Amino acid sequence: MGALHAGHLSLVQKAGEENDLVVVSIFVNPTQFNDKGDLQRYPRTLEADTEKLSALKCDYIFAPGVEEIYPEPDTRKFNFGNLEKVMEGEFRLGHFNGVAQVVSRLFDIVKPDRAYFGMKDFQQLAIIKEMVKQLGSPVEIRPVAIKREEDGLAMSSRNTLLEPKYRKEAPRIYQALLKIKELKNNLSVEKVKDTVKAEIEQNHLLEVEYLEIVNQESLQPVKSWEEPIAKIACIAVFAGKIRLIDNIGL
């Protein structure tokens, strides 16, 4: 959605290494914002984005207007089952339907062989994989690892909106995720979540919306560390009005 940072550019770089032709879409999609204020605040920096992309293998920038993506209102309703009922889906109603609408439109227009998505939006990645499966799309979805600032904060376009006092405290989010790895050998799943959430909220500038430890495939909550599945911890935190998400594989 623009306001490109090194995390986005790592997707472009990976695409350039693995493909003959690279298209970068930049479009702030209105149908995935359940908070219209968030839509208005979202940074739009197309000129700066174009400059950054000029240094990489980017053959085309596709930066359409709303009327090009949605010549008519998109009334499609997707059903992603339990994947969309937890975490982001619980707190941002309709968000993933909007994601599926825009990504499927972009796929229809660009017709890529492969599409690259960052793992910071882990639930979005799971939703897009399921969407491709449901639509029978031939697109191969390629995940790319999270890029972090030197202090550990996951790179995000929203970071540019943080006031200095919030930006200073935001790295606590990643520090808290690392703490889960330390605690999980001694405490239950619920106790770990309670402990880590309380530790973050000792700082009055940060408010945890959710902290969940889930199955990496189904995204359903994990009850015990003994469950023989790949696990991931996912978190959403408000730093003032700015909402930040992050995750860590366990």
Protein described:
The chain is globular. The strands form 3 sheets. It has a 3-stranded antiparallel β-sheet with strand order 5-6-7. The chain has 2 domains: 139 residues, 3-Layer(aba) Sandwich (Rossmann fold), CATH 3.40.50.620; 93 residues, Pantoate-beta-alanine ligase, C-terminal domain (Pantoate--beta-alanine Ligase, Chain: A,domain 2), CATH 3.30.1300.10. It has 10 helices and 7 strands. With 250 residues, it is an alpha/beta fold. The longest helix has 16 residues. Helix 6 packs across helix 7 and helix 9 runs antiparallel to helix 10.
CATH superfamily of the largest domain: HUPs
- Work out the count of structural domains: 2
Span between termini: 29 Å
Low-pLDDT runs of 5+ residues are none
**Spatial extent as radius of gyration:** 18 Å
Search tags:
single chain; Rossmann fold; 250 residues; Pantoate--beta-alanine Ligase, Chain: A,domain 2; alpha/beta; two-stranded parallel ribbon
